């Protein structure tokens, strides 16, 4: 059942902020160094929307349900194209599942019980290998197995009870005469012929529908989403006319992504910074998993043999680190493929959605104009400098250093936050690893170009249809609706983002040893430049560097890391790891 029938008439909120600019962040600009990267991520995610119903549903729930939700950064991904395919795939599945359910019910009425039992047995046999695949979740397997057993028990009960029930009706004179066997009269023969025709035609119709569905996906994967295909978000898709209007309305916001910021009455020169409004525990949405973060707090002690000290500032500290790390653009021979030549440096303000709503007022105007609108995507340079020099508890300033490797399939993002006063220096270093896209989605590059594959898959789908019918019924009758809005209550989850499109499709670990080694390589190179930049700045200002260098060496080499909550365990020592920040490698 297409969602259009249940949701098309719902009121939609197509308003834009007072500036009149759609509330979508502009894609980040890459540094103009090095060779161009392939745009594999977008086509893999477009294919994932058709190959994995769970991914398409998750993408729509995160991006196309709440009109006020912030959009997280997603390096190397055309969000408009991916969301168009996700909505098209979900709508197509609903139309196909509705047609197959109608045909299945008709077949159950027309076919004899032995044939239905045979269909059920074949369906379970075909479904068992599918359930054992890695992509099938345990909950889905349990639901499908339970549904199959329930359908089988029901059919067996009907077969066993029906004759006795018929005999009871005859003995109670509720039937005029004892029903004759099939074939004993011409009317019975006619009924048998009609039933036989339906028994043959209905499976044929099921096969035609499932083949058309499988063939559509196969054609998309082998032509439009292959290495030479062209993917655009503006290409018309006829299937979208059956999608809910509110989804189509929000989808138009991604066709021409733009950014907007609050008006500043006292602007300062400088580029605005991006705003990331998050919900949940992890603040660095779009960057993947935290990987071995650390922090140090070192005292600022004047050098005993120096000629005095000069003042330090947070801005000077950030500038020194950025200048030192940006010098890696010339170190192309140090990394495979010269990836550090394309290293990007961005300013980001990370904001908690819960605290943003909790602190609604004049001081939140730079982030949110009003509750009917999504958060701003940019913050003026003046306000960025204010937060940088005087951090807010729920809005933090970070410098983000990002390296996109392996054709942008593996991304290392490092978030730097520093603070200092007259006596203490604080450095917070948070690396994040965006793991490669799942291998099952990347297999489209080796997909067979023979049309026999969708034909075989369609035949298997028809055999498994009776077993899959309960799940199809649930998915057909499930509609994606916005969060419930109680009068006078503002839900912060309507504003904060949780995961990016890229994170929704990330694998559980790297795909080979060299990817793991490269993460370690880039991270160590960046950490060495950070320590060098801070040490040079302290020495030039007349301060002792030994305390900072020794602490930095301890947390980097001895693997003392931030992890879990503030009250979690703290472990020190060589080779120790603590907390819930998983390593990028797959667990044994």
UniProtKB/TrEMBL annotation:
TM annotation in the entry: 98-122, 143-162, 193-212
Organism placement in taxonomy: Bacteria, Bacillati, Actinomycetota, Actinomycetes, Pseudonocardiales
Top-level taxon in the UniProt lineage: Bacteria
UniProt name for this protein: Uncharacterized protein
Ranges where the record places region Disordered: 1-41
Keywords: Membrane, Transmembrane, Transmembrane helix
Protein's organism: Actinokineospora alba
